[in-house]
Design goal:
The protein is α+β, with helices and mostly antiparallel strands. The protein has 2 domains: about 25-105 and about 150-315 and about 360-475, Up-down Bundle (Outer membrane efflux proteins (OEP)); about 110-150 and about 320-355, Outer membrane efflux proteins (OEP), CATH 2.20.200.10. It contains 9 helices and 6 strands; from the N terminus they run βαααβββααααββαα. Strands 1, 2, 3, 4, 5 and 6 form a 6-stranded antiparallel β-sheet that branches. Helix 4 (about 155-220) runs antiparallel to helix 9.
Length: about 475
């Protein structure tokens, strides 16, 4: 490395000549991402397109479509109190502060100080003049100004990179909020689905108790065996055990929601309220822009932009480092003369440094920046592909579960009718109790499947909205 001082006049000419230099490094262009022309899931219409978020897309609280006041309240509490969301918010604040720090590099640094020292000079120093003072005060107030003009754009590229990183962190915050609030909605619906199962089992227990009473009555009349009575008791107690088992799952889901809203699990409870009805319709002709509103995709794209700007930072290291500096001070051995004209001192001028040899260090840093951009690009494209998959998965789930629910509904109706017929035959002595027992078991199994499908369908509906970004828009990213 070699440093050299330019004459003042020559330095000023050089500064003027360099003032027209542009930023080094490639200007950012969003990575191209081929997209499927249409949905692959049969029965749904719509087209995919390259990411072009539209301001007219649906926004707001996506869970409000379910018209559940308790869910709305829980979602708000999650947004306000969840500690993972709070941590993501502070991560964005840190990234924003880094942008402010980098922007400060565009401006001069000015410092001022003050010193008062008492000095003693050796009587035995070389060239000492006998009779001169050997101790004195030195009062000094220095002022220094230093500025490194961003001739090559390295600082501006660093600002560009940190600003894109801050936007990526803001997208991470939105994605964290979307994921956690989506998890809360899904867990809430699963609790309500368990409540539906519990309602079904309680109703079934009443029916099984009636069957046991009937069997015991027939046993007393000599029309049924003690084996029939024990089988009826077994089915009743098995069903009661299934109802109790639901309590374990429900408690775990309640505890999960308690964590999401930052409340102690020991004091949190959700009252029972069975899930009913079909899930609300999420339009299958969703504009392709909605998919591109996913914050995870926005975050991945912003990280490509950040990595691209760092290439310019690495390239700027190949150019001279030019600093404009000036310093001044007032200095005196007597404080009363500190601010007189004779106490003033100053110096000003540019300096420049150029690295002549670094064994390939700067080239390695440039190659590293390029490789990091390519990695970020690959991750962005993978995120887009994953988003396509997520939406397709939930569209397929909604279609298939709807078909399965219709078939299961017919199975439930047939099972109920079969149980009614076999019970009538048993009362008349025309059928063994095993036939009743078998039909009751099949009926309960089909009813529990139907109840489970109610939950699965509304969960798939919520997951589809999450996959579509929950109404978030990349226009909400801060400009920094």
């Amino acid at each position: 490395m070699r440093a050299y001082r330019l004459p003042v006049a020559g330095a000023l000419l050089a500064v003027l000549a360099l003032s027209g230099c542009k930023e080094v490094g490639p200007n950012y262009k969003a990575p191209a991402m081929p997209a499927p022309p249409e949905y692959s899931d049969n029965g749904h219409n719509g087209n995919w397109s390259v990411a072009t978020p539209a301001d007219t897309a649906i926004r707001g609280d996506w869970w409000a479509i379910y018209q559940n006041a308790e869910l709305n309240d829980l979602e708000q509490r999650c947004a306000n109190a969840n500690q993972n969301i709070a941590a993501a918010l502070h991560a964005y604040e840190q990234a924003h502060d880094l942008v402010r720090e980098n922007k400060a590099s565009l401006y001069p640094t000015v410092s001022i100080g003050a010193a008062a020292t008492r000095n003693l000079i050796s009587d035995n120093r070389p060239l000492h003049i006998p009779g001169t003072a050997t101790n004195y005060w030195d009062f000094l107030i220095p002022l220094n100004i230093s500025w490194e003009p961003d001739f090559w754009g390295g600082i501006r590229r660093q600002i560009e990179s940190s600003a894109a990183s801050a936007q990526a962190t803001a997208a991470d915050l939105a994605n964290t909020r979307l994921s956690l609030q989506g998890m809360l909605a899904v867990t809430y619906f699963q609790i309500r689905g368990l409540d539906l199962q519990a309602q079904l089992l309680r109703s079934t227990l009443d029916s099984y108790q009636q069957s046991l009473d009937l069997t015991q009555y027939r046993f007393k009349g000599g029309l049924a065996s003690d084996s029939d009575v024990e089988q009826a008791k077994t089915l009743l107690e098995q069903t009661r055990a299934q109802l109790i088992d639901l309590g374990v799952q429900r408690a775990q889901f309640e505890h999960a929601i308690a964590v999401l809203i930052a409340e102690p699990a020991t004091s949190f409870h959700i009252a029972e309220d069975p899930l009913v009805g079909d899930p609300p319709n999420v339009p299958t002709g969703i504009p392709s822009e909605l998919l591109q509103r996913r914050p995870d995709i926005a975050g991945a794209e912003r990280r490509v932009a950040s990595a691209n700007a760092l290439i310019g930072v690495a390239k700027s290291a190949f150019y001279p480092n030019i600093v404009l500096g000036a310093s001044g001070a007032v200095e005196s051995t007597q404080i009363s003369q500190l601010f007189t004209a004779g106490s003033a001192a100053w110096s000003a001028g540019p300096s420049a440094n150029e690295i002549l040899y670094d064994a390939g260090r700067r080239k390695a840093q440039l190659d590293l920046a390029i490789a990091q951009r390519e990695q970020a690009t690959a991750l962005y494209r993978q995120q887009v592909l994953s988003a396509f998959r997520d939406v397709e998965d939930q569209l397929a789930a909604l279609r298939v579960l709807e078909q399965e629910a219709a078939v299961t509904g017919r199975a439930v109706a047939a099972a109920k009718r079969s149980t009614e017929l076999s019970t009538m035959r048993y009362k008349r002595g025309l059928a063994p109790y095993l036939e009743v027992l078998t039909n009751q078991t099949l009926e309960l199994a089909n009813e529990r499947t139907a109840a489970s499908l109610v939950t699965q369908r509304i969960v798939a509906s919520a997951q589809l909205q999450i996959a579509l970004g929950g109404g978030w828009s990349s226009t909400q990213l801060p400009s920094n």
